[in-house]
Structure formats: C-alpha cells, structure tokens
Amino acid sequence: MVEDLNEFIKELSRVYDPDSEDTYVTLYFSKGTDKKFIDHRIKACNSVLKGEEQKNFNATMDDIKNILKKNIGNNIAVFASHKHNFQKYISLTTPVENLLIVDSSPYLRPLARLLDEWESFTLVLINSNYAKIFSISLGRVDNIKKLSKDIMNKHKKGGWSQARFNRLRKGAIHTFFSEVVEELEKRSDKQIIIAGPGTSKNQFIDMLPKNLRNKIIDVIDIDMDDEDKLIKNSLHLISEKEKRTSYEIVQHLKEEILKDGLAVYGVKDTIDAAKNGQIEILIIQKNYKLPGWICENCQIVETGFKKHCPYCGKKTSQVDMLEEIIEFAERTDAEVEFTDDEEIANLGHVAGLLRFK
Ligand SMILES: [Zn+2]
Predict the structure, then answer these.
(1) Which helix (H) or strand (E) holds 207?
(2) From ligand 1's centre to the CA of 270, what distance in Å?
(3) Phi/psi at 129 (nearest 5 deg)?
(4) Distance 53 CA to ligand 1 centre (A)
C-alpha cells in the first residue's frame, strides 16, 4: 500500500530507460470494466514492437497480469518493466480512464491529475470524551483512528465541591485533548477539518499548536453520529477549495505575465524552466496532448517527430510533451495544477509559476 501519493509520483518521475527504449508499461485499469481492453492493447503493441522491446513487453505484461490477479476488484495503476526488474502499483479510490501505454518511462499524468483534484486531508470529529480521526485521500476514507476517555459527566458527585469537581473534569478533558493532538502531530496532511457538536471542538482548537492550527481549513458544527454527512460535506469542501485554488493560480500567472515577473509559458520555455528546477507550480491544460519525442540519453524533449536524437544519434521515444514536462517538474518538487482555463490554451497549453528567474 502506498502511504503518500505525492512521494510515489516523485519517485516514479525519476524512473526512465536511459537508452530511450520503450521498456516501461503503464496500465490504468478501473474495476468492473472490460478486461478485453487489455488484450486489445497487448495485441496492438505487439504488432508495433520488435525484438528485445517486444520480448520485454510480453514479459512485463505477464508481471502485470500477476499483479492484477492479486488486486481483483480494485481500480489500479501499475508501472512495470521486466527489463529493469521494476514493478510498482497503487490501488485508486476513484475510477480512471483505462490506459495501457508503452514508453521509456512510467506515464504519470492521470495520477498527477488525481492528486491535484483530491488533495488528502485529516478530518477530526470530536467532543469532550470521544474523537475519531479520519485520513482521507483521493476522495475516500483511508484510515480511521478512534480515541476515547472516561470523563465524568457534567453533574458533580456527592461530597465534592462544585469547584473541585469542575477542576478535575477540566483536567481530564485537557489530558484527553492532548492525546488527540499527539495523534494529529503524526500526520503529514496539509489540511485539517475539525468537526463536532457544541463548544468542545473550539476548546480543542485553542489547544492546538500553531503549526496544526494553521492547517485548519474549516470547522463544522455537527452531531457525533452524522458521520456520513460529515464526510460528504468535507469532500465537497475540498473539491470546491481545489477549484478556487486552480482559479487563483491562473489569475496569479496572468498577473506575473503582465508585469514580466516570475512566470513562464509555452512548451519550450516551460520545459527549460522545469529542467532548471525553477518551477514552483506547473500549470497544465487538462485534456490536451502534444506529440513529441524524447532522448532519454540527453534528456532532451522536443515537439514533432524524430526517430533519432540530432544531438547524440541515439534512438528516441515518442511521447506526450505535457507528460514529459510533468515528469521534469515532479523531479524538482513542483506542484502540478490542471486547469481548463481558456487562456492556458492560448498561452501554449502549459505554463509555470517560477521560484526564481
Ligand atoms: Zn540524445
């Protein structure tokens, strides 16, 4: 199981065949869809590939079929190359378009898009003696941690003064909240939603250290047993937030372009900036593909078609330019933002906000 999709993508972005051979197979396959899709693609690829590449392709497909057998009933993305003894996969919470791609590197675009659309977050449902912490990634609950403590109820027992009773009760709640904070400290999600009935959640928020408090994106007033509704509302919130972020990033890009600031656009300039580690946020037109070629030996990508690299003479591999830009950007820790904003199309289908110029 993959813990951190972001890390998973970054790791895959560094993987490629240095000889530009088409040795990496990427398969995206959604559960319940027709397996014939895979057979059709195998047949098609076999009619195009030759020699060692073909041998490797079929051996890789055997590896992939074994992985599929163990993961029946999952949406899955598999990245494999028999030649490189390489096999990685991740089960996906949301269905994706079925794809089988043979290339000189793993094909990451659908995964990067999922990550962009479904940023992971932590949801805390809490009252004075019970907490449920949900880890939600790719639009689904991944993990639930429950914490509870016996806290005396609000009415004092005989013999104690009200003041003493209140003090003890407060102390017990404080101890319980500390345990929940400790649990939250272990998580790496950048966003937290706090929910629960009444004022307990606010007392809890007051106790949070600054680094955690800054991650709170919303506080929801809800009953402890309204869990399904809470998760649905939270997912909606995250999805709306992503749309807003996407809009703001494009606005920011336009401003930077107008003042000739920290921005770049168009395929060529964006590739150069991505290779240079200059890109903070890569902005990609959602459904656009641009055919090109890559020489993995020189790490040069250009539009159009070339069978051999004009710089080193080695064989090239045919690629989607935007995919290659995503791979370069992921290697240097950039964020990837997908948009269908018209202006990005006009600016050459890809752009970037820069860290430096
Ligand atoms: Zn070359």
Answers:
(1) helix 200-207
(2) 20
(3) -135, 5
(4) 19
The ranges assigned to domains in the chain are 21-103, 119-225
Ordered DSSP codes for 312-327:
T--B-EEEEHHHHHHH
Residue 298 CA, ligand 1 centroid: distance in Å: 4
Alpha-carbon distance of 107 to 100, in angstroms, equals 9
CA of 281 to the centre of ligand 1 (A): 28
CA of 282 to the centre of ligand 1 (A): 25
Q: Rounded to the nearest 5°, which phi and psi values hold at 218?
A: -165, 155
Ligand 1 midpoint to CA 273 (Å): 19
> How far is the centre of ligand 1, averaged over its atoms, from the C-alpha of 18 (Å)?
10
Per-residue pLDDT of the chain (357 residues; tens, 9 = 90+): 455 788 899 999 999 999 888 999 999 999 989 999 999 999 999 999 999 999 999 999 999 999 999 998 889 999 999 999 999 999 888 888 999 999 999 999 999 999 898 888 999 999 999 999 999 988 888 889 999 988 877 666 666 788 888 888 889 999 999 999 999 999 988 899 999 999 999 999 999 999 999 999 999 999 999 999 999 999 999 999 999 999 999 999 999 999 999 999 999 999 999 999 999 999 999 989 999 999 999 999 999 999 999 999 999 999 999 999 999 999 999 999 999 999 999 999 999 999 999
Distance 315 CA to ligand 1 centre (A): 8
Pick the CATH number of 21-103 from 3.30.960.10, 3.40.50.300, 3.40.50.11030, 3.40.50.1370: 3.30.960.10
Between the CA of 92 and the centroid of ligand 1 the distance, in Å, is: 35
Backbone angles phi, psi at 125, to 5 degrees: -105, 120
State in Å: Cα 20 to ligand 1 middle: 9
Second CATH level (architecture) for the domain 119-225? 2-Layer Sandwich (3.30)
CA distances from 215 to 39, 43, 47, 330 (A): 46, 49, 52, 23
